[in-house]
Every structure is written in C-alpha cells, then in structure tokens.
Amino acid sequence: MMEKARMKIEDAVTKWKRSNNGLIRIHIEGKESIQVNSFIQQRAASTIKLLLAIEAFRQIDEGILTLTSVIQRTEKNTVGGAGVLRALPRLTHIKVKELLTLMIIVSDNTATNELISLVGFEKINECAKNLGLKKTVLNRYMMDEIAVEKGVDNYTCASDVVKCLREIYEGNLLKKSSREKIMRMLEMQQFQHKLPARIGSAFQAANKTGELQGAEHDSAILMRGNETYYAVVLIDGLSDNEQGRRLIADIGYLLSSNI
Fold first, then answer.
1. Which intervals hold domain Beta-lactamase class A catalytic (predicted)?
2. 144 and 174 Cβ atoms separated by less than 8 Å
C-alpha cells in the first residue's frame, strides 16, 4: 500500500535534515496516511488561497456573488509578488471569475487582495471553522509587510490544507459544479516545479503552491485512474529556499513511484 512510500519519504527527510535547516510538515492521504508534524501551525503563504476560493464559491452558490460580476480594481489592493495584474494598470475592471482564475493558476496577489475585500475576512475565517480547520486563519492581505512587521500573519497546518483539497475534490459544502470549476483552475496551475515536477505521466496533478522568504509549500490532488491522493508539504525556517523546493519535488517523486 503506502508503507513503501512512507519509508522512502521518511528516509529522504532524514537525509535532507543532515545538511539543511527547515521545519517540515507533511500530510499525505490515500488508502492510508503519512503524517509528519501535520497539525503544527505555521505560515500559510499562498496555500491560504485554497480557503479563499472555497468561500468565494460558497458565496457564488448562495447567490451572494456571481462569477460574471465585474469589480473595479483599487489601488490599495495592487501589490507585488506573484501575479500579472500589477503589470496591467489600465485593466481597471475585471470579472470575479478572472480574479479567481488568476489567484489560483499564477497565485496573483493583487487578484487575491481584491477577492479578500469582496468576500471578507470574517466570512473566510468562518468558512475555515465550518470546514473543521483547526489551525488556519486569514489575518492580513497578501504582501502586507507592515502587518508582518507587527507579527500579524496568515497561518495553517498540513492537515488543514488536506481538508481544503478534499473539500474541493469530494466535499459537500459546495455544489458539484463549483468544485469542478476550482479543480479546473488547479489543473491549469502554472507552478509545477514542486510536488508535480517528477510524478510521471500516469498521474494527473491539481496543485496550489506557496512561498515566502524561508518557506516553501505545495499542496496537490494527485489522480491515477480511480485512485486519488492528497499531498501537502509545508517547509518553513529555510536558509535556502531552493533546498526546500528540491525536497518537495523529491517527495512528490517518491510518493508517485512507490504507490
């Protein structure tokens, strides 16, 4: 079953720790589970965008929002980091569907901030509670360095991210059509250099990454035939982000080649 994959992954993590610094949290679910410190809270980075997508689509399902609604962009929500909207200042109006798509497939921080303003911090965190997320909270906008300097950040844990993935793929909070829309966005993910990097052609991946200085994360739904696996690897405290990216890619390979 997954015992061989577990042993290979644990061995890879042990070897990695001999020459690298980093706090590693892993939660993988399939026919069995592999967990390493999976309930320990840490910085969420862009994995928090999964929760935002779920709450946005919940509001769409209830008629509070519509995918075709057009919003006017605001200067306060235009930020740096990942994404393309900041490079398109003349694009002053944009549909909710386009914001969601950009937030997922290129992790657009400006699109994310517009969605946070639209959906609301309170509703997003209420959604986290409804999903049974124990360590996940949205406290700030993307790229809010002033908030970070004050010790305000967004947090999650590997097990909570698995719950988000499971909700998207097979949950009951959202309508099936909404879950399928999020899945299509995740399948169009442009950042494939971590968990999906070396999984082989037998698997299809739908993933959402996250990164900050000193942190590298990835979360993926891995599908092979009628088999589905949920894989989340969160690494923080890195002195070299590249080493974190390599370990996550190794874990994706070891999982896919040993199940």
1. 29-234
2. no
